[in-house]
Every structure is written in structure tokens, then in C-alpha cells.
Write a structure and sequence with these properties.
This protein is α+β, with helices and mostly antiparallel strands. The protein is built from 9 helices and 13 strands. The structure holds adenosine monophosphate.
Amino acid sequence: MKKYIIATIGSHSALQILKGAKDEGFKTLLFTTKEREDFYRRFSFIDNIKTFSTYDELSKFKNKNIIIIPHGSFIKNHLPLPYFGNKKVLDFEADRNLQYKWLSQAKLNLPKQYQLTDKGINFPIIIKSHGAAGGKGYFIANNYQEMSEKLSKFSSEYIIQEYIVGVTFYFHYFYSNLTNKLEIMSMDRRYETNIDGLSRMPINVDPSFVVVGNSPLVLRESLLPEVMDMGERTVNVSKKVISPDGLYGPFCLETIITQDQKIYVIEISARIVAGTNLYINGSPYSWLNYNEPMSTGRRVAREIKLAIKNNKLDLII
Ligand code: AMP
């Protein structure tokens, strides 16, 4: 194990990932831009820092002992280093139509999708551009006319979804393809401006959905078995649609729960999500499985450790 170095890029959940790697006994390495170098040097669990200005520069680090852990800030850049996770899953995550097929085969409740030609729309819908980061650029329309007016000013690709009225819940899972076990690591809700501020001021403004933070949450226990099942079905179907390996490692089902307790999945993230940063010291749920603080970042490092011990690194990298 001593020869392996766990690395990531300085943003998103890098601190959690490298702290977890250090706690599991790995050497750690951070790639970062020059401006952030001083900030990251403050943390003693980061053994080595390399600065870069473009992703291309990273191609010179061809070291098969460096295992890179992807996160939300660089998932689409294919680095020339051994990488934890299944890269094929990224194509399914990035393409909303492929994602929709996968999740509907997993029999998850999904918001209905509409076309620009659906003239009968007389209820709230949300228009989401492809590849939008952090809910930026989404908007709402209440009927067909409003939707067509707003879309006439819109140039990028988008999908039109039924607007689900309820509360957001983001479930963080970890699936081990070494032990075939799924765990619920933690959960959060994203704090989005201005939608989460509108109840404080009853005025009529267009809502926006830009993520600015995350808050901790626990779920009503009677809903937990269903959330576990939803994760199981997502993993099982991924083995067929993204065969043979499917989805493994950390992932998140992003949901909205309605007043009749129906859980709608609005999106999947097939990697560590930033909401797990709430639980660098473990969550109430990870505490049920581990008698020690277990963040998602640390869980990733533990998986790599298990693979090294059993000579199965090629199954997860
Ligand atoms: P997403 O990028 O799909 O995770 O969506 C970002 C945010 O937009 C979510 O956290 C919700 O607040 C909101 N949102 C997305 N899809 C829907 C939907 N179908 N109904 C209601 N709100 C939604």
C-alpha cells in the first residue's frame, strides 16, 4: 500500500478526499492552480502539492501509482492517470436522455418530460439546460405560452420537466463492487438562491436555483428502506445498461419528496457530491456502519485499500 498516492484536484471535496486518504494511511497529493496553493498548504494531511495552469499539463504526471479521485469540478476531464470509478458512467450522467433511460429502467419515480410542441401545458414546468452546473440558468414557466416566450430567448439544449412541489433531499450512497454492498453514507439538502429565500418575502419574482451551500438532514426512518431500495435498483440496472461494470463508488440520488411522500428523482450524480463535505467527521448514518468517523472521501480510500489487499485494484480503477 505504501507505494500508492491518492490525488485529486484542489476544489469541491478535495479536502475531504485527502483527509480520508491520509486517515487510511495513504500518501496524498493535490494538483491545484497557483492562486490556491497557499490555502491548501495549511493542511498537514496533504503531503505534496503540484501546481498547474491547464489540464493538459497534468498529462506529464504519468505515474501508475498515483490514483486520482474524481469530483464535481473535473469529472469531464479525462486525466491520463489511474482513476477511481467507471468512466463509462460519466457519459450516462452527462446526457440527460441516457440518464432518463437508466433511471426509468430502475423504476424510480421521475418527473414527466415534455416537448416544446406540448400545447396542453397549463401547470408549472422547469426548463433545464444540458450540462448546467449548480442549477444555474434553470427557469420556471406556468403554462405553454409563458414557456414558448421564455424558450424563444434560449439557445442551448434543454429539457422540459414537470415541476415537482415538495422538499429536496439528496441521498449519498456508496456501492462497493468488491463486496457487492450498498451503504447510505449521508444526506443533505442543497441551499439554493433565490428559491430557498422566497418564503421569507411574499413577493412575485422569478425563482432561480443557484446552489450556494448545503444543510444536513436526516430522513423519516419509515422512508429509509425505500431509499435503500432505490439505490439498489439504480446500481443493479447500471450493470445492464453500462455493462459490464456499471456504477460503483460514491453516487447521489437527488430527489424531491412530495406531500404524499412520493420520492421523485430529478438527477443522479455518479461521483462524490459536495454535500458530503458536511460529514468529514462521519454522519449519523455512517456511524451505524462504522464505529469511527467515516466520510465518503475516507470510504473511497478504504475501498482502494481493500482492493490493494486483495489484489483487485483493476476492478475499481
Ligand atoms: P438539478 O440540477 O437537476 O439537481 O436541479 C437543481 C435544482 O433545481 C434542484 O435542487 C431543485 O431545487 C430544482 N429542480 C430541478 N428539477 C426540478 C423539478 N423537476 N421540480 C422541482 N424542482 C426542480
